[in-house]
Design goal:
7 helices; alpha/beta; Rossmann fold; four-stranded mixed beta sheet; 179 residues; three-stranded antiparallel beta sheet
């Protein structure tokens, strides 16, 4: 996402960014700091304020950790942002490179993963507490997917994910983790 913003600025576009903190890793803070150093106007908000902040924006861009034939897997909150964008009639895009496309359901790996990730605010969750920071958002929630190859319709993105090859050993490892 950072590269897309920097390239847009280099091409002469004038814009501002509202960045969410992106807990627990706080990648949004890093993004905001970098954008500010590059003289791009940026506001940093808590993740939970994303829907409220949409009152002053024209377009919503989120990253994508993985794109499958049916979902975009990304941090929790992405689906809420998509629904709020739909409610306001705002275009909603995922931005990623094409290496993120995969023809596999890796969602099961993250669903209800006990203690596998840091809990909000740091530390690890109590024994038996689920800490999940990723969620699937249906492709149909998005206006399009933006990649280095250009803007892909939802149908094109789904087909690209269906055609994505995955190493057999990795596919087997994902299936083993899901069991």
């Amino acid at each position: 996402m950072l590269t897309a913003f920097l390239e847009a600025r280099l091409s002469g576009m004038d814009f501002s960014v509202v960045a969410t903190e992106s807990r627990p890793g706080l990648e949004g803070r890093t993004l905001a700091d970098t954008l500010a150093r590059e003289h791009i106007r940026v506001s940093l908000i808590p993740d939970s304020a994303a829907a409220l902040a949409m009152n002053g924006v024209d377009v919503i861009l989120v990253g994508a950790d993985t794109i499958t034939p049916v979902d975009v897997l990304n941090k929790i909150g992405t689906r809420m942002i998509g629904l709020a964008a739909r409610e306001r009639g705002l275009p909603f895009y995922a931005v990623c490179d094409t290496s993120k496309f995969i023809n596999a359901n890796c969602w099961g790996r993250f669903e209800g993963a006990e203690g596998s990730m840091n809990s909000p605010g740091g530390g690890t969750p109590s024994k038996g507490a689920a800490a999940a920071y990723f969620e699937p958002t249906p492709l149909t929630h998005f206006t399009a997917i933006i990649t280095e190859d250009g803007v892909l319709t939802i149908e094109e993105a789904s087909r690209r994910a269906e055609r994505a090859s995955i190493d057999k050993r990795l596919s087997d490892a994902i299936e083993e983790l899901r069991q």
